[in-house]
Amino acid sequence: MLTSVHPKLPMRNKVATQEYYVDQLGFRPVGDAEYADYLLVEKDHIELHFFLFRELDPKENYGQVYIRTDDIDTLYQWMLDRGVPIHPNGSLQTRPWGQREFHLLDPDHNLLTFGQAV
What we know:
2,3-Dihydroxybiphenyl 1,2-Dioxygenase, domain 1
């Protein structure tokens, strides 16, 4: 039945979005065709899609995706070592609902939450 999900998130600038996800977060572009208004990236078994939305107001963007990992501490340290800005209220913590999580905001304020069950 269901085998995977590929979130579609808004972006204002394809170059800025690609630089963030590829250069900072270690994703790679997907596909052999270039689309002016669309971007696909992947890392490990995670694939994210982005659609161009030039009029997007980042302060009004509620795009969010929750990404599960099996090694949250290593991933968090890897992000810190690369200088990836962590959400000001999103440092690595164990949450009351049994998840160890941290959060990032991409250039368009899409919220990325990374989590692992405790």
